[in-house]
Automatic annotation (TrEMBL):
Residues 13-261 form the MOFRL-associated domain. Residues 334-446 form the MOFRL domain. The keyword Cell membrane does not apply. One of its GO terms (cellular component) is cytoplasm. Pfam families: DUF4147, MOFRL. InterPro entries: GK-like_C_sf (IPR037035), GK_N_sf (IPR038614), MOFRL (IPR007835), MOFRL_assoc_dom (IPR025286), MOFRL_protein (IPR039760). The keyword Ion transport does not apply. Keywords: Oxidoreductase, Pyruvate. This is Hydroxypyruvate reductase.
Length: 456
């Protein structure tokens, strides 16, 4: 085993990955959009004299919520924060940190990306606070990836349990984030502009960290501040109905859900009174570009730097493994890709645990295990969620490299046996390949770093 090559590749891959994550951190990004100047607060290009404000109302949800709140309170300073700011933001339980004035609510457990009763209760409180806003208030909404599960309010008569079942069903059957959020928007009272309709006649700025390729505002956190035009509501409901029907038989989903999507259950929509602007702080593209710069600074030649859409974890891992192994290598090479592949669970009666990033890395190992050991020691693929989460696990993803292959061989573990039933966690836990970061306090989807060194 070439321990020196493996050590260098592992150290470089982690540094490159972290450079991408750091590029999406709110601490540096938010002050570019919110600042104090000449006794005024400036958000984007909007200038509001502080003396004219009754309150600065802060609302929101997402995995980056805590770091966005801390960055905002720092940008405003202690005196302005204490005097003017009120607010509530929903985050995962392991992202709750002490703040000065803006309350962080742990709206779901760590590693469980589903709506909860606590999340529903806090969302109601957020809507109630939104309804108190007036033209004398400045409203700042902090939205980031993961906001859909953290800002839940099922549309009556749908229950939380019925909504949870729909989300699980779509997730386990390979629905894309676009398909998932289309359905979410149409079975929720807060998504699809529900929060916008709850606001009073205020000036509202939405600060967004995107976890969707292309940054469509209607899909990020399922678009709580972007109402579907009244004339398109029925069209969107029909699209959501057809999407759900493509993944589920009628008897698998509660009648209440089908009735809402078919228009049988009507809802009176309030007009939007607030003046709303959106500002994009960070996206997967920024993470990929920052990773490219770090790789180049470490002497790697970039072969690919892209974001993927609409592919499975198996396809992404297999294709990257072949691209790395098949490329003629005369200098250190690097492949970087972002995005969020899907996983469609295969039938399996036994216990299993994993996530899409672990599955990507496992797919690569299945290809590399048959290669010459010297060559395998000089290749690595790191695949990780920039939020520090990968499926219902406590890791961000996994690393496929020569050390993992050597350890698997010592233990008599065949990566393909775990790959076929999508049981990646126990394999990487046993072989030392888990990427464990804890919550990163941002979320711009996944980032994959692949490296290869030439043979001496």
């Amino acid at each position: 085993m070439d321990e020196a090559a493996i050590h260098r590749l592992t150290e470089d891959a982690q540094a490159i990955w972290w450079a991408g994550v750091q590029a999406a951190m709110p601490g540096e990004l938010l002050p570019r959009f919110v600042r104090l100047e000449n006794e005024s607060i400036i958000v984007g290009g909007d200038v509001r004299p502080l003396a004219s404000l009754r309150r600065i109302v802060v609302l929101g949800a997402g995995k980056a919520g805590a770091s966005m709140v801390l960055a905002l309170e720092a940008a405003l300073g202690d005196e302005i924060t204490d005097r003017l700011v009120v607010g509530q933001v929903n985050v995962p339980e392991d992202c709750v940190v002490p703040t000065r004035r803006i309350q962080l609510v742990g709206a779901r457990p760590a590693g469980v990306n589903e709506p909860t009763l606590v999340g529903v209760a806090s969302t109601r409180e957020i809507l109630e606070l939104a309804a108190t806003t007036t033209a004398d208030d400045l409203v700042l909404v902090l939205l980031s990836g993961g906001g859909s599960a953290l800002l839940p309010l099922p549309r009556p008569p749908i229950t939380l349990e019925q909504k949870q079942h729909v989300i699980r069903l779509l997730s386990t059957r390979g629905a894309s984030i676009e398909q998932l959020n289309l359905v979410r928007r149409n079975i929720s009272s807060v998504k699809g502009g529900g929060l916008a309709r709850a606001l009073g006649p205020s000036r509202t700025h939405v600060l967004v960290i995107s976890d969707v390729i292309g940054n469509p505002l209607d899909l990020i956190a399922s678009g709580p501040l972007l109402p579907t035009p009244d004339e398109l509501v029925s069209v969107q409901q029909q699209a959501a109905l057809e999407t759900l029907a493509s993944f589920a038989e009628h008897h698998e989903v509660a009648t209440e859900v089908w009735n809402v999507l078919s228009g049988t259950t009507q809802e009176t929509l309030s007009p939007v009174r607030a003046e709303i602007s959106h500002h994009l702080l960070a996206s997967n593209h920024q993470a990929v570009q920052a990773a490219v710069q770090e790789a180049q600074s470490r002497g790697y030649t970039i072969r690919i730097a892209v974001s993927d859409v609409g592919r499975t974890a198996n396809e992404v891992g297999t294709d990257l493994a072949h691209a790395i192994a098949d490329e003629p290598c005369r200098e250190p090479l690097c492949w970087i890709s972002g995005g969020e592949p899907t996983v469609k669970l295969v039938p399996y009666d036994g216990p299993r645990k994993g996530g899409r990033n672990q599955q990507v890395a496992l797919a690569a190992l299945c290809e590399w295990q048959h290669w010459d050991a010297d060559q395998a020691d000089r290749m690595i693929l790191l695949s990780g969620g920039t939020d520090g989460e990968d499926g219902p696990t406590t890791c961000a993803g996994a690393i496929a490299n020569g050390a993992v292959l050597h350890r698997a061989k010592e233990l008599g573990l065949d990566p393909c046996e775990f790959y076929e039933v999508q049981n990646a966690w126990p394999f990487f836990e046993s072989t030392g390949g888990l990427l464990i970061t804890g919550p990163t306090h941002t979320n711009v989807m996944d980032l994959r770093v692949a490296l290869r060194l030439p043979l001496d």
